[in-house]
Amino acid sequence: MNIISGGVCAAKGFKANGIHCGIRKNKSKRDLSLIYSEKRAAAAAVYTTNLVKGAPIAVTKSNIADGYAQLAICNSGNANTCNYNGVEIAEQMCSLIADATGISSKDVVVASTGVIGEVLDITPIKEGIPALVEGLGDNSDLAAEGIMTTDTVKKEIAVSFNIGGKECRMGGIAKGSGMIHPNMATMLVFITTDCAISPDMLQKALSTDIQDTFNMTSVDGDTSTNDMVSILANGMAENEMITSEGEEFNEFMKALNTITVYLCRNIAADGEGATKLVECKVEGAVSKEQAKLAAKSVICSSLVKAAMFGSDANWGRVLCALGYGVKDLNPNTVDVSFKSAKGEIPVCVKGAGIPFSEELAKEILLENEVEILVNLGVGEYSSCAWGCDLTYDYVKINGDYRT
Amino acid sequence: MNIISGGVCAAKGFKANGIHCGIRKNKSKRDLSLIYSEKRAAAAAVYTTNLVKGAPIAVTKSNIADGYAQLAICNSGNANTCNYNGVEIAEQMCSLIADATGISSKDVVVASTGVIGEVLDITPIKEGIPALVEGLGDNSDLAAEGIMTTDTVKKEIAVSFNIGGKECRMGGIAKGSGMIHPNMATMLVFITTDCAISPDMLQKALSTDIQDTFNMTSVDGDTSTNDMVSILANGMAENEMITSEGEEFNEFMKALNTITVYLCRNIAADGEGATKLVECKVEGAVSKEQAKLAAKSVICSSLVKAAMFGSDANWGRVLCALGYGVKDLNPNTVDVSFKSAKGEIPVCVKGAGIPFSEELAKEILLENEVEILVNLGVGEYSSCAWGCDLTYDYVKINGDYRT
User: Fold this and answer.
1) Rounded to whole angstroms, how far apart are CA atoms B9 and B232?
2) Which of A27, A208, A388, B389 could cross-link to B309 by cystine, CB 3.0-4.6 Å?
3) A120-164 pLDDT, tens per residue?
4) β B369-375/B277-285 pair status
5) For residue A100, how far is the Cα from the chain centroid?
């Protein structure tokens, strides 16, 4: 597998664009994105588990119930959620873009992100669609911009991989960066591939993958109302279609996982206000579930996040988070280390502090990618979760709590 | 019932003190507190549910297993948690103070609060105890200071009430203000009363009360390792002892609830970095449990908290928090209003936004005590939770998200 350029346009037959149509007041911010496949594609998606759901979620679900779609349209600046006419507006978005591209309005993945509870005006979208369609091309970067909300950097990636002797490609874009606390799936992520795979297997691949990727990512503990991960597979790589598990499905899963882990790490690193990516790697758990609970509890702890901002090796907060996050925790078997490009330093062995160099610990934690390594010491299961630091005032107090 | 002065010394036979003994480097900060009852008292406590527990928790639990205690000692600056010798140190604290006051070391409630994972040196405590005991008197305020960590204000209150013709008194002190997210109980709270009540009924009163008070308070989502609520009842008011449920037990419960609600509100208002108290009142729920989940989910949401800091009537975030916090929520029956001393403003009816004056909403939310009123519209149960706003950078971004 190779990392390649091109984002969601890397796979054969996919074009994209992103424009400013006027939903946002700031004219320098793109607010409408389109991803288009020359051929109708197998489609799969996973959605937020929040019971308050954006209207576009309902429309997308219905549209891809048959397993197929041909394009994805997404606006930023307004979530089209908690409005009396949300479904109507989302359906209008589908009809307008379907008419402009000559496809069926039932083959549209539609998404919105932004403020909740304000009516989404269809006018700027309607007026923007001709330019949006006209500009379709190798423009993954513009589409990635158009879905950004408080994100400070674009998130896109692509890979090439081999299925049955045919070169396939897969690419993805994502938006963060607040209201990020998945449960089933969250955030807005669009993935495209030219690999031929049946809708069932595509859904299976996505639903399996997110358990260890997007569902293990948190910025602020708030599970969003609107977010979803969708994937379109148009088959233009001409490999023999993947219709069951096996070697080729595994290759596909590997490519998908490369895309999703990259996007998770980048969403976490660009969390609102964040200065660094915090990765918690847990091993030695009695079950996969325990490993996941442990890793997520650590990266979700406000106090751990604040300590990471202050580059403070306050491992007691890691123990605290494990203590309320994991069922049946035995504190007396837990080891904790901190790690980064500057090295690794053990700070807690069997649940108790050990002497360590505060200087080296600081140097390690000052890096912008930091790992918290936890060994629960009771089993063979492991997990990883991605989060970020929590910055400022709350923070001004907690980041320096020990000194 | 009347609010009176005196804190934990308001009830007959109770004295207190708080000194700087040297656990903290800052000499102007008291770090050792004592509450002493002339008579051995019925004792009850509730403890954190965090599986990583401070050593003092284990020692207190064992000491009051017989239902009685005579004093409470508490240091700040070090939590005596996750150390190889924690229990030994906590037991030494008990022996030293027992010897100095001539009581049994088994009649001591012991507590510690501060950094986790650093060995607690017994020396300053040992050297401080003579002055601590010598200064015992009407010094609830000094004891309240001695248990503070990042708190910016002391938290103390007292009430008088009548049981069977006898005037009884009850008072309490508390410390906040980070790692506050109770589950069973959390924070450090010491309550004293001269009311005569059996240990069983005292425990029942406390365990019942905290379900709707301390368990409904959150500052940062982190359930502490060390915290507990304890109560001593020395019977010196000479009322007939309360040994069962009934009118007098109810009177006692009312007094206790007045103390605990006051302390909860003050702990929340003084949450780390907070500028205001946020109270979420939920009604119209199908069950008490649903009402509590709803209220807690709203006050725990980082995004709601950030909006409150920015005095931004971003009610969509309230709906979002309800959507992931409440099982079986029907968004289409939910009403939301904001309220404070400046008035009340409805912002969402039946799950959709309604036009409202942004100016008036701002004026209401600029107050330092703000209520979020939620009607789930499906039942008869209600609940209340207390929290605070989340301030700065994370905050700089989210507080102004809509504009």
Assistant:
1) 12
2) B389
3) 999 999 999 999 999 999 999 999 999 987 777 888 999 999 998
4) parallel
5) 30
B113-157 residue pLDDT tens: 888 888 999 999 999 999 999 999 999 999 999 998 777 788 899
Summarize pLDDT for B48-103 with one digit per residue, the tens: 777 778 899 999 999 999 999 999 999 999 989 888 899 999 999 999 999 999 99
ipTM of the complex: 0.73
Give residue B203's pLDDT.
Answer: 92
pLDDT at B185 (0 to 100): 41
CA distance B109 to B392: 38
Provide, as residue numbers in chain B, all residues whose Cβ is less than 8 Å from the Cβ of A323. Answer: 50-53, 223, 225
For residue A243, give the 3-state DSSP assignment: coil
Assess whether B225 carries a catalytic annotation: no
Q: How far is CA B111 from the centre of its chain?
A: 15
Min distance A330 CA to chain B CA atoms (Å): 8
Tell me the chain A residues in contact with residue B324 when contact means C-beta distances shorter than 8 Å. Answer: 49-52, 181, 183, 222-223
* DSSP conformational letter for A332: G
Burial of B163 (0-12, 13-18, 19+ CB in 10 A): buried
Q: Which of B81, B116, B224 to mutate to test the interface with A (most CBs of A within 10 A)?
A: B116
Half-sphere exposure of A306 (CA within 13 A, CB side): 29
Cis, peptide link before residue A95, omega less than 30° from 0: no
Hey, is B324 helix, strand or coil?
helix
For residues B305 and B370, give the distance between their C-alpha atoms in angstroms, rounded to a whole number: 11
Q: How far apart are CA B220 and CA B371, in angstroms?
A: 18
What backbone phi and psi angles, to 5 degrees, belong to A14? Answer: -105, 135
First and final C-alpha spacing in chain B: 47
How many CB contacts within 8 angstroms connect chain A with chain B?
A: 203
Give the gap in angstroms from C-alpha B258 to the nearest C-alpha of chain A. Answer: 29
Residue B88, Cβ neighbours under 10 Å: how many? Answer: 14
> Rounded distance, CA B270 to CA B296, Å?
18
Coil, helix or strand at residue A188: strand
Cβ–Cβ contact A352 with B under 8 A: yes
Task: Look at residue A403 in the predicted model and tell me its pLDDT.
Answer: 41
**Catalytic-role residue among B48, B101, B113, B186:** B186
Separation of first and last alpha carbons in chain A:
47
Of the candidates A389, A395, A347, which has an alpha carbon nearest to the alpha carbon of residue A370?
Answer: A389
- Please count the CA atoms within 13 angstroms of the CA of B4 that sit on its side-chain side: 18
What is the value of pTM for the model shown? 0.77
CA distance B186 to A45: 41
How many residues can be counted in chain B? 403
- Contact list, A49 vs chain B (CB under 8 Å): 324
